[in-house]
Amino acid sequence: MASIRLTKRAIRSKILLRLNSQKEEGREVKSRIIKNKLFRAAAFKKAKKILFYVSFEGEVSTEGMIKKALKLGKIIAVPVCQKNRMIKPCLLKENAKLVKGPYGTREPVGKKCLDSRDIGLVIVPGLAFDACGNRLGRGKGYYDRFLKRLPATTASIGLAFNFQILPRIPTTKHDVAVKRVISA
Asked: Is residue 144 within 8 Å of residue 109, measured between CB atoms?
């Protein structure tokens, strides 16, 4: 177990360095490609209520995805991190004011929540993924706990840049894989 934590820490460190050294123009181009792939996915087309993450620190940019999904009539929620290390899906309206939450993430000022069982699709961030959908997050376990509580029928898609796709991610029994990864 200690060696897995060490390996996860090393992967996090390497990927964070690559994310932060990526040119903004390249990140935006790849994010648009990922957005186009996501919007063509059957799980996206079918979902009426979607939990998106609000991107930060070099992640695949989700702002444009969120705006377009709202225009398409999707009901969008974003995660709000609770003190009990749980995610609460809070509704995001067009032009909603976002404030800095724990860990630097942005969340809506008004916190009208959505029942997580009503969510049809969860868009999941990650520092790294593998071909089986295993993901390496930032190490706090918020998404693992959240995904574990969802109905088995809820779709989950990780978004990543190609350099974030690794041959294998070390996992423990607490880690929850996503059902699909979209990358560019």
From this structure: no
